[in-house]
Amino acid sequence: MGKRCRLRVGRTTDMTATQARGLAKQYAGQVAQGIDVQAEKQEKREKQRSDTPKSLRAFLECHYEEWLLINNRSGKREVQRIKGQFEFLLDLPINRVHVWHIQKWQAKKLKEGCSRSTVGRNLATIRTCFSRGMKWGFFDVNPLAELPSISANGRTTTRYLLKDEESRLRAALRERDSDLRKKRGRYNAWRDERHLEPFPSLSEQQFADHLEPMILLSLNTGLRRGELFSLRWSNVDLQGKNLSVSGEDAKSGKSREIPLNEEAYEVLEHWKAGVSNADGNLVFPNKSNEPFRDVKRAWSTIKARSAITGFRWHDLRHTFASNLAMNGVAINSIRELLGHSDLTMTLRYAHLSPNHLSTAVETLSPTISRSSQYGQPIKMGT
What we know:
Largest sheet: 3 strands, antiparallel
Radius of gyration: 31 Å
CATH topology of the largest domain: hpI Integrase, Chain A
CATH architecture of the largest domain: Orthogonal Bundle
Number of domains: 3
Order of helices and strands: HHHHHHHHHEEEHHHHHHH
Shape: elongated
């Protein structure tokens, strides 16, 4: 009689009893055929260990990067963030990566003046990378599992344009637009002197280029920058004064509808009438007829021209939401317009709502006055 040995078919957390019995029968059949199941399993484990990436760079280039680019809309940015911020970890053996490395990096970044929210986003990116490696079975342990999340100390500043800042921004946009028209006129005069074909005149167009309509549309719709760059004419219904953000372009992955107010409607109407490729798909194509990746140079110039500091493009979206809140629009309506999945993000604007606290407690007041309910106060004798 041959030697008896035990064979583990799997974990109870990974399979049902029925599946376990099926595997046991399969292994019993292989043993009956003279197959060494234990040796095969050992060989499979050794092969898996040999295929396991030895460094973060190997894991990124061989496995994670491709998956991220396919499954994450911001995958390219995530990869760049890992390689740029955590370059010191890339060639370190995975089993030598320690929480201490990350905490040392964290302290250095904060000392250099990086905001806690920025540091937190970078930490979330590298933490997710290691978690995915664990889920796929490439890493035995997650070296960052014990890394505490960085706190923003409960302080979140929502930057939005004050009235005088918005006035300066609009004036600077008009001034820049006028300069572009004059520049085009001088250039065409130069070409005319040399008997060259002139460029299209800008005098008949409402906007000289894309920057002003982009900014005005953002102020009136709250579109994210990526949503704005990806906006298509097929998403714009000028007749119904409405635009839609498709799920594939939205951060939440959900489509939403945004009504166009008068200014947003006029901006899109004039822009469509003035651009030569209005029949194309993109509302704001770049010179290569593709979506813009950024407008950093023009944006920085217009901010300097209007003397606005500490303001990002995304803060145009904050301005849209803040103005709605200050005009008394319900928080849930603001949430729907912004496309937030829940109220958590939208509540940052709640404090801007006029008398929002006094209005809340006033709802508790009885509809019948105390004097009418209880009669006139009793006069006591002297």
